[in-house]
Amino acid sequence: MRPKIYLFGDSITEFSFDEGGWGASLANHFARTVDVVLRGYGGYNTRWALQVLEKVFPRVEGGGEPLAVTVFFGANDACLPDRYAAFQHVPLHEYKHNLHSIVSFLKKQWPKTQILLITPPPIGENGRLRNPYSENPVTQPERTNEAAGAYAKACVAVAEECGIPVLDLWTKMQQFPDWENAYLRDGLHLTPSGNRLVFEELVVKLRDEGLSPENLPVDLPLFTEIDVDDPLKFFNK
Amino acid sequence: MRPKIYLFGDSITEFSFDEGGWGASLANHFARTVDVVLRGYGGYNTRWALQVLEKVFPRVEGGGEPLAVTVFFGANDACLPDRYAAFQHVPLHEYKHNLHSIVSFLKKQWPKTQILLITPPPIGENGRLRNPYSENPVTQPERTNEAAGAYAKACVAVAEECGIPVLDLWTKMQQFPDWENAYLRDGLHLTPSGNRLVFEELVVKLRDEGLSPENLPVDLPLFTEIDVDDPLKFFNK
User: Fold this and answer.
1) CA angle (A151, A175, A14) in 5-degree steps
2) H or E element: which one contains B51?
C-alpha cells in the first residue's frame, strides 16, 4: 500500500488542485511514492474543523498511518467579529486551543505521523474590498492583515509548544516586495505564484523531516531501471 | 470513507498532476466528493501492467470498491518493433488480449466499478524526432501515428466487446486542425491544451455514467449550506 500525505484545511487547501495549485504540485512531486489526499473544506475555521475531525480522519482497521498531515487553518478564524463574515470568526485564544486539540487528536490517532502546521497567509485588504461573496458593497474588509498576523503568530506558537514544524506563510510571503499582487488573487486566495511558493516551502519542510521522493520506496520499478534486453526480469523477482 | 477514482496508465497518466494536468483537474473537479488516485507508471506497456496488476490494485478487506478506474495504455505497446524503443513494443493481438485481461481482473475484483478505457493519443512524428530520451540522433521516429491508430482501434474494439465506455483520444484529437502542436509537446506527451481536452472529455464520459459531483454525496456540509446565525447547527445533526 502506498503511503499517504493528507492536506487538511479550508478553501486554500480545497482549491489546491486547481491549475498550478500547491496540492497538485505536491501530488506530482510524489507521483510514484505517496498518495496526496485532499481534505480541504472551504469556509471552515478551527471550531468547525474540530466538529468534523473524526469524520475526516476515521480510524480504519489496518489502514496504516499516513506519512504526514498538513493542518492549514486560521484565515477564516481571523475574520473580524464586527464585520460581515463574523460568523466565521473564532477568538484568538480559542483558535490556539483548537489547533492544539487538532494536533492532539492526530498524534493520538497516528503517533508516528508527521504533523505540519501552516499559518494563514497575509491579507491584501484592497483585494478583499473586491470580494465577490459579499452581497452588499463592502467599504471595510472583513479580514485585516494585522488580525491574520496575530493568528499566524499563535499558529507558530502552537507548533513550538507541540514540537512540530510550521510553515509561517504570513511572514514568508511578506518578504517579497509586491506580495499583495504577486501571491494573492483576491487578497486571500493564491495566485499561481502564491501556489508555487507554498509548494516549494512545503517540499523543503517535508524534506527536512526526511519526506522526499529520494528517501521513499518507489512504487514498482522505474522505467530507467528496466533491462532493455530482458524487461520482464525485473517483474519476476 | 470518500470513494475513489483510480487513474491507471503509463507516463501520460503519471505526469497528469503536472501543471494543468488532466489528473489534477479531475481531482479539483471532484474536490469534495471523490479521491482521485494516481497510478501512472511511465514507460509501461500492457505486458508490464499485467505483471503488476495485483500489486497496483491489492484486495483490501473493507477497502470498498472504487467508483471508477481509467485504463490508459497503448502508447508504449505501439512502439515499432524495429526501432530503438522495440523493448516496449507489444504485438497488436497481445495488446488486445492484455487489455481484456486487465478489464477482467478489475471486473472480478470490483464488479460495480466503472471501467473506462482511453486509447493512445495520436503521434506527432516530427515531435518524436526531437525525443530527448534517445541517445543516438534519431532519423526515424520510434512511434508512428499509423501504428498508434491501429492500437487505438483495438482499444475501442475491446471496450465494445466488454460493454464499457472508451475515450478515443486518437480520433478526437485529430479532429482539431493543428493537433500536433496544439495537443502534443514532444509528439506524444500532452501540452496544457492536450491535458485540458483529456480532462473535459473524461468529465463528459464519467457524467454519462452518472459520475459527476452533482450526483455524488458531498463530504461534509458546504460553506453555502451553513446557517450564518447558528453555524454549529449543521454539525450537531
Assistant:
1) 50
2) helix B46-56
Cα separation, B128 vs B125, whole angstroms: 5
B221 → chain A, closest CA residue: A41
Q: What is the pairing mode between strands A166-167 and A68-72? A: unpaired
Question: What's the grid cell of residue B236?
Answer: 450537531
DSSP-derived 3-state class of residue A42: coil
From residue A226, alpha-carbon distances to A26, B4, B16 in Å are 26, 30, 22
In this prediction the ipTM stands at 0.93
CA distance B69 to B75: 18
Contact A234, A227 (CB under 8 A): yes
- For residue range A89-129, what is the model confidence (pLDDT) as tens digits? 999 999 999 999 999 999 999 999 999 999 999 999 999 88
| B93 included as an active-site residue | no
Q: Which of A11, A101, A134, A212 is catalytic?
A: A11
A135 touches chain B (CB under 8 A): no
pLDDT above 90 (res A7)? yes
The count of other CB atoms within 10 Å of the CB of residue B214 is: 7
A189 among known catalytic residues: yes
Q: List chain B residues with CB under 8 Å of A14.
A: 31-32
Task: Write the Ramachandran bin of B80: left for phi over 0, alpha for psi from -120 to 50, otherwise beta.
Answer: beta
Place of cell 470518500: B2
The answer to whether A215 contacts chain B (CB < 8 Å) is no
List the single residue in B58, B220, B232 with the smallest CB-CB distance to A55. B220
Catalytic status, residue B189:
yes
Whether B31 has its CB under 8 Å from any CB of chain A: the answer is yes
In chain A, the largest separation of any two C-alpha atoms, in whole Å, equals: 71
The tens digit of pLDDT for each residue in B191-200 reads: 999 999 999 9
Contact assignment for B17 to A28 by CB distance below 8 Å: yes
Distance CA A66, CA A2 (A): 10
Domains within chain A, CATH numbers bracketed: 4-236 (3.40.50.1110)
Considering only CB atoms, which chain A residues are within 8 Å of B1? 58, 60
In chain A, helix, strand, coil percent, each to 5?
A: 45, 10, 45
